[in-house]
Amino acid sequence: MSAAVGTSDSRAVIHAQGLGKVYSPGTQAEVVALDGVDLDIRAGEFVAIMGPSGSGKSTLMNLIGCLDTPSSGRYLCDGEDVATLDAEARARLRRDKIGFVFQGFHLLPRMSALDNVALPMGYVGVSPDERQSRAQAALESVGLGERAGHRPNELSGGQQQRVAIARALINEPPILLADEPTGALDSRTGEEILALFKQLQRRGHTVVLITHDADVAAHCDRVFVMRDGRMHEEEAA
Amino acid sequence: MSAWEVMRTAVFALRGNWLRSALTSLGVIIGIAAVIVMVSVGQGTQAEIDKLVSGLGSNRLDVGPGSRRGPGGARLSASSYYTLDEDAAEAIRNEIPEVQYVAGSLRGSAQVVFAENNWATSWEGVQPDFFALEGWEIAEGAVFDARDYGGASKPVILGDSVRRELFGDAPAVGQSVRIGRVPFTVVGTLAAKGQGGWGQDQDDVVLVPLETGRRRLQGSTGLPPGAVQQIAVGVAVADDLAYVQGQIEALLRQRHRIQPGDEDDFRVRNIAEIVATRTQTTRLMSLLLGAVASISLIVGGIGIMNIMLVSVTERIREIGLRMAVGAGPTDIRRQFLAEAMLISLVGGIVGIAIGIVGALLVGRLGTLPVALNGQVIAMAAGFSIATGLFFGYYPARKASQLDPIEALRQQ
């Protein structure tokens, strides 16, 4: 495996220190979702974050993905401190640093695969012509060059997830964040998708995979386990 | 995203539910069309009044008989008797220097006959200043000369409508016509004035000298000597109008020996006052019409807001996804605002087309005058865009403030 072995935290694309998240603080409904999580992921790593539901892994994913801000602690996303950013700035950070892959694919049903893949470029200011060619290239890199004109409902689940991965890669973000990417797929198709992630890692992408499935996590270089809002263990793959 | 692209995305989104989009536009279409038709009618009416003002002149006073109490205290009709005469007209001319024109007149109705053609019209017995006061131009022939006003000769000047009815395209000057049973010689014809401010045909008239009219056409109903029905007064400077009005009233009260506290037996009417009242009425009408039209536009706007709110709720997952891939609140707000504006813009364009057709139809079929101009259309276009912006803002803001985590979780 070609896992990055650098030890300097400053070179980490994801650097979290004492990360905490409390919902409805000060009320009876107060929930401590994250309780002092430390996490360092370096460029080019393929890591899994595991944990049962309610363990805080979704909260962690939202924080890593710059969808939310922490209540306490520090999170540097590719060197940028997220805590101080407003919604507009966080959107820009997501656009430039994060590629999301969801369990339910989240493709827009009325658009072709090509337009779905091209969607994120609309918020960057890439010219329409360049968007078309880049989206086509991205589809080809996930093995769907022939299916560019198809709508999501004309594609299989595995193909839809490939389209979603192509979309996540289109702005060349340093972090690829996948939330149960194989959860909606049968095991054979799931293996194919995981193989695709490994391929992407070899090309230099950092992949963070959130899953509750130990078999899936076994494909990764490093595995973090969340339990009751704490990053409990770190096992070797 | 460029503005062009935001618009293209909006077109794509609206096409996905085109019937709903079209129905939502309908509200704006009706509103904008109503605004155009209503404002056109309002402006048309105002234009008619302006024409009336310029036709009558704003520096003119009309002196007519006042109402008089009969023996039992019952009011008699104002025109049922004659309190004014040529001497009063002369006195006004001589004693009030601000007065430029004075013309007493009599009028009545009569059948005018030429050869086998005849035409029922009204005649007016006039004094020389009448032509200047009324703004009459001679088309053919000449005005009456000094001898004509003596009452011995029987000359007549025909209004354009009467000339057309009796002579068609044949020359009228020099011909002999009968008014009632009295033969007259046509000495001139008047240039057409067209429809008056109250919709009457101003050209349906024949003019004779005052004395001739009194002797030959008024009949022997026992007129006081020199009696006139009305004295028209033209003031050189419009600002003097109120002052001259007071002077005339004082002069006539003195001449008629009316004691202080007694009622006048004459009435001085200020045309400008009448027109001002009418203008005010029209303004009010325009305002009401505009208000009705605006209400329909507001209803259309509420329709847009309603549909946009539904659309935001329906597309919450799309919004969440767009946010996840990098759309900021501004991008989301812009997108939904663009959709609302597109609905109202399309509605505006169709509404303008229907409004123009509607205004033209009203002008052609109806009795209401219509003035359609670019200003009205530009205003309507502006209104339609403003409607989209105003009513689209809240739903767009709501979409932009969604929490992407919640939005993505929505099934």
Give an overview of the whole structure.
The complex is a heterodimer of chains A (237) and B (411). Chain A has helices spanning 57-64, 87-97, 113-118, 128-141, 157-169, 187-202, 214-217, and strands at 12-23, 31-42, 46-50, 72-77, 80-81, 98-101, 175-179, 206-211, 222-227, 230-236. Chain A is α/β, with parallel strands linked by helices. Chain A has a single domain (45-69, 87-236), classed as P-loop containing nucleotide triphosphate hydrolases (Rossmann fold), CATH 3.40.50.300. Chain B has 2 domains: 3-52 and 277-409, no CATH class; 67-264, no CATH class. In chain B, β7 (176-179) and β8 form a beta hairpin. In chain B, α2 (18-56) runs antiparallel to α8, α2 (18-56) crosses α10 and α8 (271-314) runs parallel beside α11. Chain A binds chain B through residues 62, 65, 67-68, 87-88, 91-92, 94-96, 100, 102, 106, 108, 110, 119-120, 122-125, 128, 167, 171, and chain B through 1, 5, 9, 12, 16, 317-318, 320-331, 404-405, 408.
Summarize this structure as a short list of keywords or feature phrases.
heterodimer; A: 237 residues; alpha/beta; Rossmann fold; 6-stranded mixed sheet; 4-stranded antiparallel sheet; disordered N terminus; B: 411 residues; alpha+beta; 2 domains; 6-stranded mixed barrel; two-stranded antiparallel sheet; 12 helices; 12 strands; 54% helix
Q: What order do the helices and strands come in, and which of them pair?
A:
The complex is a heterodimer of chains A (237) and B (411).
Chain A: E1 12-23, E2 31-42, E3 46-50, H1 57-64, E4 72-77, E5 80-81, H2 87-97, E6 98-101, H3 113-118, H4 128-141, H5 157-169, E7 175-179, H6 187-202, E8 206-211, H7 214-217, E9 222-227, E10 230-236
Parallel strand pairs in A: 3-8, 3-9, 6-7, 7-8
Antiparallel strand pairs in A: 1-2, 1-4, 4-5, 9-10
Chain B: H1 3-15, H2 18-56, E1 60-65, E2 84-85, H3 86-95, E3 99-114, E4 117-126, H4 130-134, E5 138-141, E6 155-158, H5 160-167, E7 176-179, E8 182-190, E9 205-209, H6 210-217, E10 227-228, E11 230-235, H7 241-255, E12 266-270, H8 271-314, H9 316-324, H10 329-365, H11 374-400, H12 404-409
Parallel strand pairs in B: 4-9, 6-8
Antiparallel strand pairs in B: 1-11, 1-12, 2-10, 3-4, 3-7, 3-11, 5-8, 6-9, 7-8
Helix pairs in contact in B: 1-10, 2-8, 2-10, 2-11, 3-7, 8-10, 8-11, 10-11
